[in-house]
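User: Continuing from earlier, I have the next pair ready.

Assistant: Great, send them over.

User: Here they are, in order.

Assistant: Folding the first of the pair now:
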Amino acid sequence: MTRKSLTVALALLTFVFVSTLSPRAIAADDPSPNHAVSAKTENFLNSLHPVTGSVSIPAAKATLQLAPGYSFLPAKDAQRVLSDLWSNPPDNSVLGMILPSTDPHVLLDDSNWAVVVTYTEEGYVSDADAAKTDYAEMLKDMQKGTSESNPERLKQGYPAIELVGWAEPPHYDAATHKLYWARNLRFKKADGSADGQSLNYDIRVLGRRGYLSLNAVAPVDALAKVSADMPQVLTMTSFDTGERYADYDSKTDKLAAYGVAALVAGGIAAKAGLFAKLGLMLLALKKFVIIGIAAVAAAVKKFFNRRKS
């Protein structure tokens, strides 16, 4: 990553918004202890229109080839799930949601996941740094930055975060131009007692003009299932002919000001716009952890300075 790339990447960093999520929280209009589905929730689920097979995502010029047993909620339905079912502010940038079932009732299953699909068009992301990046060193800097910002989070009334490590180390497939990684996060209250745990699983599919983001939403109890299912999800996604990574034309197309390493570093320091796309879906439990830009930016800067030296 060049100095210019790093400067732009750091300029995009604002806060970290991470949380645990329990899909059971989405049925909050039904207070019964056995979590029976209310008529309101049932009517909502029946109003959704999941599709299967080959699914086009025109806004991203991409296509999903869904395996049997999977389905996709188109943009409007996915946005309704986030806002009406999961009580988040409206967000029309969400392009859809992948489900591990053809039955929308899976959204109430506390042992399952959903993948929210968004698209960022900021140019062709060079993968030149993918093989050279030391993600173990990056993790150390991210852990240090997270730890150093905990006193301020606790002061503001938010639980502290421990970045335990990579649940799945960053892996970039140079043949398919797909990147994935997962972080294991643990939360603690001011008295040191446990306050939840979360897996954040991220997939980035690189294209000619930007990248698709596939972000798994799941409760902590579904971590093993998420890790097992995401490789399948990874194979389902591709850009259309003419919009693929190999179609990039350096003479006419925009080059992003950052590379693959910044996508991973940026996974814990979300851009302002990305929070609207991904973080707000976690509003149901209202357990936010806010990390200031200074700590995260310092961690990323130290990592890249070490690489340069």
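And the other member of the pair:
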Amino acid sequence: MPATPAAANMLTDADSAALLKRAVAQVNTLVLGKAQEVRLAFVALLSDGHLLIEDLPGLGKTTLAHALAATLGLGFQRVQFTSDLLPSDIVGVSIFDAQVRRFEFHPGPIFAHVLLADEINRAPPRTQSALLEAMAEHQVTIDGHTHPLPDPFFVIATQNPVDLAGTYPLPDSQLDRFLLRLTLGYPGEEAERALLSGTDRKDLIAQAIPVLGATDVLALRSAVSRVHASDSLIGYVQALVTRSRQHPGVRVGLSPRAGIALLRAARAYALLLGRKHVLPDDVQALFAAVAAHRLVADIDAGSHALLAKSILHAVPVD
């Protein structure tokens, strides 16, 4: 069970590490054969970022999101994005109350610790944009009034490939709000056999006991900020960002915000591996997931993932 608020304030680094290890292990029992992808999902959470999961239907995107929510023990809401979804269906709406003669705000599902935006690219751009302020500022503004969101606030969005019918590409400004984008791919043979012969994932997730709570997540995020990054490591991150702006085939390279996101994610990755300092290996393991969806490529430059890999190979580690 997650620690109580009073106990959580007294958690040592060892306690936090043990809780985190249990949480990761539980999600791995619910999402089989995807240990690295599960680790990246926790990186997004611990880095105070948001997660975009992109893949074909039926490969476990929503299962991973539900498994994370069940393990975190936080307030959870799911919104199925469709072509007729309105911004007010997400953020809420002000309704006039005749008895008190004033507008009363009725919050939407975005007012939760964890929001699953399922198939986000099936909604038109106007509805997608309803998430921008929330993801960047952890607040929403409606009718001139600002409403803070719960802390922590974590968006897990799933999307189908943009070449599928009925999808709208996410604008670059929204893609940049996601710390990480990952794909799951088909399961390995052993994992798929376990899925076919075992208990339904929905039933297992329903039985999952929360391992973390809100105070635990905030304590872990604080621990991430204390993970050491040397001057040479920061220089390596800066060199990658600079190279992305000079690389042939890239029209728009990584912004300073992307560099900050990469460094923050590397700190979280190191913490997940039980270290208090960042290694170049951590940056390399994360670079494609943090950078690929932020690159604006020329038409004939190939996939964003290949561009990210090419940039990574072009920058030596001192």
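Worth noting for the second one:
Residues 40 and 95 are 40 Å apart (CA to CA). The longest strand covers residues 92-97.
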